[in-house]
Amino acid sequence: MRAQFSRLLLWSVLAMIAPAMPGMAQKATANSRSPQTFDVAFTFNGASANQVGGSRFWMSGAGMQVHDRFCGGWGMVADISGLHTGNINSSGVGLDMVTTVFGPRYTWSPGQRRFNLYGQGLVGEVFAFNTLIPMKPFPIASDNGLAVLAGGGMNLRATPHVGIRVFEADWLRTDLANTTTNAQNSLRAGAGVTFNF
Q: What is the chain's alpha carbon radius of gyration, rounded to the nearest angstrom?
């Protein structure tokens, strides 16, 4: 059931992006000074995550975002990212986590400046594996659940088609088994490069 949800989310993103591609190419040739409306970002991410009992640990990884701005500053974004740690708080237990989230983003581009700011609220699925997830009566090696991502960031245009993701900071909530609240709250931060079309 959860695998079907992930496939449905991916096909929804592709269905949203595909019809916009020919129109974006025509806009780019018609007016080279028009604002960029479609971008792909590749980021390196770090996250401060919480463990059962309140102790925190660090994870690192990378991600990709596909963003289509279609109505003023409003658009939709799909975010796929992975995080990893090999040793949670010196316990000898590692964790790999992949999130796939999708939702609205608002981008504010002040005048003719070379930067823009954005805020977003995304929802989707998390898959955790290569770990020991506390569960009764026995721990399990993998689990999946709901993921919610909310935050924002800043992009800086370097050339008409290449930019820098100066920063992105997000609150990431995941619903994975942990024998208590079955919820985890993480702070994820990242930076990287963007390609504008």
A: 18
